[in-house]
């Protein structure tokens, strides 16, 4: 019984360690919106994308690449990145080469 519990524990631990490395890159097409505080500082960059019949709002990680999207506020873009979901929020971390590509209209 102890060996079984140990084996199950190791498998669960392995899944948590390997899962982030297995995250796939996706392409997101949508409209950028920038959220600022009262002082005008950017607090969030979001991309709203239509996926089938529903809208998905991606909160962009505010690293250097994510901040580059701020000048695209209100515009359609197409970016590549990695998506993670945590506590009901969908976060998009943009790949460096993809941050400056506005969507062709």
Describe this structure in words.
There is one protein chain. The chain is α+β, with helices and mostly antiparallel strands and 105 residues long. It has one domain (24-98): OB fold (Dihydrolipoamide Acetyltransferase, E2P) (Beta Barrel). The protein contains two helices and five strands. It has helices at 2-18, 64-67; strands at residues 25-36, 42-51, 54-60, 76-86, 89-94. It has a five-stranded mixed barrel. Strand 4 (76-86) and strand 5 form a beta hairpin. The protein is globular, with a radius of gyration of 18 Å. Residues 10-21 have low confidence and may be disordered.
For this entry, give a set of tags.
single chain, 105 residues, alpha+beta, OB fold (Dihydrolipoamide Acetyltransferase, E2P), 5 strands
């Amino acid at each position: 019984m102890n060996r079984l519990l140990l084996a199950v524990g190791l498998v669960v631990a392995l899944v948590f360690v390997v899962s982030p490395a297995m995250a796939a890159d996706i392409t997101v097409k949508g409209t950028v919106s920038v959220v600022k505080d009262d002082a005008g500082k950017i607090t969030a960059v979001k991309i709203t994308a239509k996926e089938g019949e529903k809208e998905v709002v991606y909160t962009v990680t505010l690293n250097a690449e994510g901040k580059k999207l701020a000048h695209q506020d209100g515009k359609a873009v197409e970016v590549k990145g990695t998506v993670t979901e945590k506590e009901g929020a969908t976060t998009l971390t943009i790949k460096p080469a993809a941050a400056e590509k506005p969507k062709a209209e």
